Structures are given as C-alpha cells and as structure tokens.
Amino acid sequence: MDTIRNYFKFNENNTNFSTEIQAGITTFLAMSYIIFVNPAILSLTGMPSQGVFLATIFASAISTLFIGLFANVPYALAPGMGLNAFFAYTVVFALGFTWQEALSMVFICGLLNVLITVTKIRKLLITAIPDFLQHAISAGIGIFIGYIGLKNAGLLQFTSSAGNILSINGGDPHADPLTGGIQSVVTNGGILPELVNFTEIGSLVAIFGLILTIILMVKKIKGAILIGIIITTLAAFVTGLIDLTSLNFADNSIHAAFDELGQTFGVIFTKAGIPSLFGDSNRLPIVLMTIFAFSLSDVFDTVGTFIGTGRRSGIFSAEDEKALESSSGFNSKMDKALFGDSVGTIFGAILGTSNTTTYVESSAGIGAGGRTGFTSVVTAICFVLAAFMSPVIGLVPAQATAPALIIVGILMVSSLSDINWAHFEEAVPAFFASVVMGLAYSISNGIAAGFIMYGIIKLVKGKAKDVHPILWVSMLLFIINYIVMAIL
Length: 488
Prior knowledge:
By secondary structure, this protein is mainly α. It is 64% helix and 4% strand. The longest helix has 30 residues, at 284-313.
C-alpha cells in the first residue's frame, strides 16, 4: 500500500485510497455508456458488433491505465463520441472508405498526434486556430452528434420536396448517412427532415428514455446516462421492441466476442488496411485531409478537457499550461498526459475502434475527489470487468442509446457560450464551423467552412498576416479537395 501511495503521490495531492477508488468508479459510471453506444455506431459500417464491444473495453482500459501510470493524472480514455460518428457516417458512408481503411487513418492519426506531442509542432497547431474557432468546432460536433441521436431515436422522418415520406428511423444506414439509402435528394429536388407523428412505439420509447435521462442529469445522479440506457432498454423489452428469442448465450459468449475481436485486431496491417488506403494515388488528398480532420478534433478536444478541468482542480499548474505552448518533449505533467492520450489512439486503432481520447466525463471523478493516476487505474479495472456484459450488448436498441447521443450533444454545444457573437468577425466563421457541421452532416466540411470564412474575413479586413500559415495551408487543401471532388 505504501508503494502505491508513494508512486501516485497521495500526500502531495491531498488524497487517499478510498477517495481515489470512489472517484475511479464515479468516472466509469459517468462514461460507461460508451461500451453500448460505440458498438452501435461502428457496427453500422460492417464491423463485428461483439468485436467492437471488446475493442472498446480493452482500448479504454489500456489507454486509461497507461495515462494513469505514466502521467499520474485522474483521466479516463475511451473511443470519442463525435470521432466515432465521423468514422462511420463521414469517412465510411459519405467518403466511401472501408472500415479497415478508416481504422488505418485512425492509426496514422495516433502516430501524428504522438509526433506533435513530442515536438514543437503541437505548439504551432494549438496557437494557429483562434480560441473562438476551437469552441465552434467543439459545439459543431455536439450539433452533429445530437442530430444523429434524433435520427437514431426515430424522431425524424425524411420527406421529398413533393411531400412523400422517404424514410423513418434511418432506413439502411449503409447506403446513405442522412436518408438511409433514399437517393431522392437529386431526383425529387431535395429531402426535408421533419418530426414524426409519434405513432411509432420506438419513437415513444426513445422520448421516454430522453426525458428520463434528462431528469437524471438534472438531479445529478451518478451514472445518469448509463441508468437511462438500461431503463430505456427495459422499456423497449416491455413494449416488444426487443425479441429475447434472438438471444443465444452460447453464440454471444465472451468466447464468441473474442472470435469477433480477431476480425478487427491488427487488421490495419493487412492488405485491407494501410496498403489499401494508399493503393490509389487519386485518393491521397482526401486521405490526408481526413487524417488531418481526425487529428484536429482529437488534439483540441483533449487540450480543452485538460485545461478546462485541470485548472479548476489544480491537477495542472500554470506552469503546465505555459509548457503546453512553449516546450517539447515531456517537461511537464501536461506533456505526459497529452502523450498518453495520443498513445491511446494507437492502442484503439490496433484493437479495432475509432479514436481513443480523453473523456470530459473524467470531471465527474475529479469532482468526487480524484487527484492522481490511481483514479484512472480503478476506472481501467472497471472497464475490464465490463467485458463480461457481452452477452447482452446486442439487446440494447438504438432507441436506448439515442438519448445518450442527444445528451452528449447538448453538453458539447455549451461551447457556443464561449464565443463572442456580438463580434461579427468572429460570429461568421464560428457559425459556419458549427452549424454547417451539423447541417452538412460532416465534421470536416464544418471545419473547412469555418476556416475558409475566417480567411476571407481577414483578407477583406486587410489582416491576412494575422492568420497563421498553417491555417492558410489548411484552407488551400480544403479548396483543392472540393475542386477535385467537383471534377470527379
């Protein structure tokens, strides 16, 4: 016990075993919804659901354990919400990459993030994008996630401009990320989303789950999102949405899940992975820009989480924040934490899941008193124990996980309050970066819109020199990509 206490510096951080254990469990309860939601999203791409389930658990456990032991900070990692949606709905469905190629991009993103963490490139990336655009990107991802949640809940139906109902509850998500395979967007002059008439049992169950989860969140119940998922799943069973006859414990055992994990583990190193990703030189520009989009979202979400929670709690000192911009290597706790986050993405890609990143829900454990990496160790152990829940993962319907997407979207949209909307020069790029991200159903397009509008405004104002060269290069790459896509 003394060895653990000394390693994690309990006395210096004014903490103890019981507090750290409680904090670790609290963090797990706050973010454990990801073990249900991540397989639900990534399996739409054709990935094996049980395999993704285990990949999610092991990536979360390994990455959380690593950051706790290496950086001694009370943060937990898991496949990021928004990043997994980007993986499925944009990279696979919209851009047409296979899930094996998408995993390869995530792996390269992890290597890139490690590189920018140990060099001064990280400083350039962080200082290049204005704070208000960072907030707009975060909020835009929230809008994107919330919209997916509403669609998965069956609360939206899609009609043609002629008034014909084309799709309810998303249809076949493999064909088209917005309409579920309805290609009338061209032939019928457009598709309009609207609320359903609430005669579908699935929609009513989703509304029940959403209201329940909101009440639990307002009451500040620990594990509110997970509790909401479980109770909504029970409601789905009572209303006949879940067919227990399809449940086969022999086929859905932990052994079967490990068999499916074998289909994703290390697939990036096979012909279907990295070699396939770079096999067509015509796709190289969009491949590089997609990796950039992955990296951008991952890096700034992580930095925002660390600074936002670490400053108030004292986990990161003012010197740590200053070192973030001026140092290279591992000269501070912040440097080590960023490195741990970057390595987490690599672990996740090898196992078979989208970007593994630091969760803002870690603030729940910090609020419970967690101050050291031992909190993370406890959370990692909880994730491993969760692996034995694999027989029931397939029973959780979309109506039960959709409220979690909506709630997380709400939490992320709060970043809009950090933008000065009265300042028109900031409002325009922020609007396009956030709103276009949701309406265009694409995180990368939202980032592109924000960057390009920011550059145009600075040119008109004669302040082009105020824009970092990295942003000009990014804008140029986005524009070139749109030209190439238009020609093709």
